[in-house]
What does this fold into?
Amino acid sequence: MSKTMKLLGLVAVFGIFAACASMGKPFASDNRPATTVTVDNRASLSMDIFIIRGGQRIRLGTADALATTKLTIPRGIVTESTDVRFLADPIGGNRTPISETITIHEGDEVVLTLPAF
It folds into this structure.
């Protein structure tokens, strides 16, 4: 084998070790706490829950009827301090309750209570 082939083989092996060394380590952004909303749905209809930020409506999930559901707000939606509203769209209903504007911070645990109607 020529010196060039041996050198290329050695570089390839070190490249693989370097790539494997960084695998499994979380990125710094993954260490941030999750921001959640706990929905206490006291209504007899299940609700699709949305977060509204600056006119953008993002679906978080479904809150079952007469149950408590915990939903995670996707990273990047809430930064250090963000003004948001929550919208509950009843499945099979015609009312869409919307919350007042609240300020939440990354890592907060928000509780949203939907009254029976």
